[in-house]
Each structure stands twice: as C-alpha cells, then as structure tokens.
C-alpha cells in the first residue's frame, strides 16, 4: 500500500489529529511567544472599549512567524477585561483569504476567570482522554508593542479545520451556543427565530442555513414518547458519546457547562453534513474543577435532554460507568496530577511576572495548591457516590 493511502486509512481509523500530533502552534510542551504590534492608540481604544467587538489592525508574530495586517478585537463573555483583554485574532479581516496554519482565526484566552490558569488545559485533556474531541491549546507569553501583557492560553477555534481534522467532516451546520439567559433545551415551537441566532449562533452556512434539523432535534427531545425516547433521540445523537460528554463535565465539577448553574453554556453543536446526527464540542472550560465534592447527577433533572435520557435505568448505568471511568482512569492523582505539575512548571515564572493578572502571586500559588487537592479528591468522591 502506498504511504499516502496508508495515512488516509489510518486517519479514518484514528482521526487526523492523532496522526500528526496536533499543530505545532498548539504544542503544549512549550511556552509560546506571541507578539502584537499595533498603533498604541488603537490598543488603548481596544482596552477602553473592551465590551465591544470593534476590530483594530495589527501585525502578529507567533513563535517568530510574522503575519501582517490581521484584525484584533476584544472577546469573551464574563471574561472580558479592560486591563488584560481576551483577544480574537482574525487573519483575513483585512487581507482576503489570509490564513495561518490553515486557520482564519485564533483565540488568545486571558485566563482571568481562573486564578490557577490551569483548569481549561486539564479539562480538555480529560475530554480528549475519554474520546471527546476538544480544541488544541497551549500557553503563551503575550507582548503588545514591546510591553509584556501576561500569560494567555492560545486556543484552537472550533471552525472548519477543527471539524475536518477531528470529526472528518466540515460541510455541516456548526452552532456556537451563546448564553443569553437560562435555557434547558426546551421546545418553543417551529419558528427558527426562537432558537437562531439566539442562543444557537450559526458559524457555518450563515447565508444559506437550513435550520430544520436543529428544530426537529429539539422537538423530538421534548415530544418523543417515553417508551421510544432513547431510540428517537438516537436519530440525532450518538447517545453513548453524549453520555460520556456529560459524565466528563460532572466528573470535572463543571458549574458553567451543559448543565450549568444558570442554564446551558460553553459548547458548540455540530450537525454533520447531509445527516441528522449532531455532536457536542466542549468550549471554555476554565470554570471546571470547581470543587472536590460534586454530585454526579448535578442538575441532570433541569435539562430536558439529560432528564429524559437518564430516566431510563439502562442509560443511567452507562452514564455512571462513564463517570467512574473518567475519574478512575484520568481525573485522579496518578494521571492528571502530573499533567497539572507540567503545566504549572511551564508557566510559573511567566505568571509571577505577569503585570496584568487580576490577582496576586500568592493567590496564584494558593489556587494551584487548591487545584491539586481537587484533582486528588475527585476519584474518591465519585466512587463514594457510585461504588
């Protein structure tokens, strides 16, 4: 078999991202260097108007590779910050078709909601280990106009390159779930305007979107008979994969995710091209690992989708098995704690010198110490609930 044919066959079996080990710009083994050069008045304006999505022109260097005339804007929801703004880099904002490593944009997460700066890194590792595709990410030192702006997380956007590499398809409908109030997967009738673009914001096919699949998915979740709800929902979801996603979130004690304290939040939903099947993709996990003690059925009953699926005892058993696997294999002091220590060692000096972080160095060290305790405690807590 020719080498290219062999690689194609392996990609089908393993997934392209596993073959190439990820893009080097997201190499987690190194602390990357990102430099932004832009008009100082524009940078000041971006920080002053950090609640808006106004773009500004800039040149950016990532590990000494320069891309000129990119668009930079403030980003985030609760993480928006005037002193240390989260940033979206749009490579083709001012130069049509310009990309970097195949990406049209990148995210620079300011990590201001996590005093340890490590939670999203660890959470995505657990998702990946459990077979749930998650964005690549890597820590970076950011410099703006030769001034050190602090430690950021360089995050792969959930866009077509991610979809193609991790899901094997980028022709379908991608929705970014944008939180705008409590929503629990309820059906509000056949009007697409009840769901799109709020809270399901299209990221592909914006001009020719067919929303019928999403509406039918939500309708079936709410209206399928109890006797056939598992099979009916199975037309739209790989139920076991979804249960794994759910299990990882509650194993991670995630309070602002799919079963968030204030309703659903922080995920993408993708419908495969030409299919009825959807898949959930994790996003923005810096509020995970919030407690050493967390109910494995936390808020399952609040969400229509999770409540209806887990009413079935056989499905409930699969879910409990997935939570136990998450902590028994990965979210414990044997597997995840070494990952925590690698990340901490990698960023510690840069964090201590970070002049923009909204907490002290002592608070950073205490947060890491607390995170160690949470990682070490989750296995025993889960197993006590589901022996």
Unreliable sequence segments: 1-20
Largest sheet: 7 strands, mixed, barrel
Tell me the series of helices and strands, N- to C-terminal.
HHEHEEEEHEEHEEHHHEEHHHH
The amount of helix comes to 25-40%
Judged by helices, strands and strand pairing, the structural class is alpha+beta
- Strand proportion: 15-25%
Q: Describe the global form.
A: globular
Chain-averaged pLDDT: 94
Q: How many strand segments?
A: 11
Distance between the termini: 48 Å
Discrete helix count: 12
Task: Write out the strand line-up for the largest beta sheet, numbering strands in chain order.
Answer: 1-2-3-4-5-7-6
* Rg value: 21 Å
Written description of the protein model:
The protein has helices at 3-14, 16-20, 40-48, 119-129, 160-167, 212-223, 229-233, 239-251, 304-310, 313-330, 336-352, 361-385, and strands at residues 32-37, 56-62, 65-75, 86-90, 105-109, 137-144, 147-155, 173-177, 200-202, 267-271, 278-282. The chain has 387 residues and is an alpha+beta fold. A seven-stranded mixed beta barrel has the order 1-2-3-4-5-7-6. A four-stranded antiparallel sheet has the order 9-8-10-11.
């Amino acid at each position: 078999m020719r080498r290219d044919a062999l690689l194609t066959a392996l990609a089908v079996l393993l997934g392209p991202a596993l073959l190439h080990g990820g893009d080097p710009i997201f190499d987690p083994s190194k602390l990357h260097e990102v430099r932004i050069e832009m008009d100082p008045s524009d940078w000041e304006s971006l920080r002053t108007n950090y609640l808006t999505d106004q773009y500004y022109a800039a040149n950016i260097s990532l590990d000494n590779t320069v891309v000129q005339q990119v668009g930079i804007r403030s980003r985030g929801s609760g993480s928006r910050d005037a002193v240390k703004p989260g940033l979206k880099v749009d490579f083709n904002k001012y130069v049509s078709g310009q990309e970097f490593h195949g990406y049209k944009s990148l995210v620079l997460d300011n990590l201001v909601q996590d005093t340890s700066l490590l939670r999203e890194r660890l959470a995505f590792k657990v998702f990946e280990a459990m077979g749930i595709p998650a964005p690549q990410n890597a820590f970076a030192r950011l410099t703006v106009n030769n001034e050190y702006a602090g430690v950021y997380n360089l995050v792969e956007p959930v866009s077509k390159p991610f979809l193609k590499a991790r899901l094997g398809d980028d022709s379908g409908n991608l929705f970014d779930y944008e939180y705008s109030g409590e929503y629990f997967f309820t059906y509000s009738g056949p009007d697409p305007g009840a769901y799109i673009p709020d809270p399901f914001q299209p990221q592909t096919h914006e001009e020719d979107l067919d929303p019928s699949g999403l509406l039918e998915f939500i309708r079936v979740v709410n209206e399928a008979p109890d006797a056939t709800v598992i099979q009916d929902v199975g037309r739209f979801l790989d139920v076991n994969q979804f249960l794994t996603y759910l299990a990882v979130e509650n194993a991670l004690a995630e309070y602002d995710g799919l079963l968030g304290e204030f309703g659903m939040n922080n995920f993408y939903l993708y419908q495969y091209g030409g299919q009825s099947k959807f898949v959930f993709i994790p996003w923005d996990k810096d509020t995970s690992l919030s407690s050493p003690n967390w109910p494995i059925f936390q808020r399952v009953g609040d969400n229509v989708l999770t409540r209806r699926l887990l009413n079935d005892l056989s499905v409930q058993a699969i879910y409990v098995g997935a939570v136990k696997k998450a902590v028994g294999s990965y979210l414990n002091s044997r597997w995840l704690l070494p990952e925590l220590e690698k990340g901490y060692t990698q960023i510690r000096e840069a964090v201590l010198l970070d002049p923009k972080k909204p907490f002290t160095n002592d608070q950073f060290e205490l947060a890491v110490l607390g995170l160690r305790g949470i990682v070490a405690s989750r296995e025993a807590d889960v197993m006590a609930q589901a022996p």
